Inverse folding.
């Protein structure tokens, strides 16, 4: 499985990951990155490329994908909504995904990569992906990360 961590500047400006980053940065400047401040309508062109991961459970392996956009389902080869990360990913891909999510949570900052989707039959595809951490509340009353928004699309996707 190909995996390369990159900076957002290496992603085209019209790619879904970069577009979400722009909205995330604006949200951070205005309100902080509390989950309650996130409005999916701020990124309508990106919604099909979004997966929302709920950070609940005793470990990152237990975090659950609670929403998957239609294009992410195609990229992943199926609907993984409702599955724990440990159920949705093969072992090698799970460890790489856990590392990215754990870093985003620890550093409270997005993590970007260029990778092949971690699903059988999708190894030939290259995609950019970004993991964006959202706090339980922007006011500091719930300082832990409650959700991760994963945005992913093939490298040649522009919206």
């Amino acid at each position: 499985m190909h995996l390369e961590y990159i900076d957002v500047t290496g992603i085209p400006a019209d790619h879904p990951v970069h577009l979400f980053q722009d909205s995330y940065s604006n949200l951070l400047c205005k309100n902080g990155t509390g989950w309650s401040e996130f409005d999916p309508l701020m990124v309508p062109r990106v919604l099909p490329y979004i997966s929302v991961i709920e950070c609940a459970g005793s470990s990152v392996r237990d975090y659950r994908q609670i929403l998957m956009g239609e294009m992410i389902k195609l990229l992943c080869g199926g609907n993984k909504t409702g599955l724990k990360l440990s159920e949705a990913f093969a072992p090698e891909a799970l460890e790489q995904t856990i590392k990215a999510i754990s870093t985003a949570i620890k550093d409270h900052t997005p993590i970007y990569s260029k990778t092949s989707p971690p699903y059988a039959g999708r190894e030939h595809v290259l995609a950019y992906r970004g993991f964006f951490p959202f706090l339980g509340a922007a006011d500091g009353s719930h300082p832990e990360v409650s959700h991760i928004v994963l945005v992913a699309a093939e490298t040649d996707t522009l919206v």
Observations:
- The beta strands are 3-6, 50-54, 64-68, 111-115, 127-135, 145-154.
- The chain has four helices and six strands.
- The domain at 3-154 is CATH 3.30.450.20 (Beta-Lactamase).
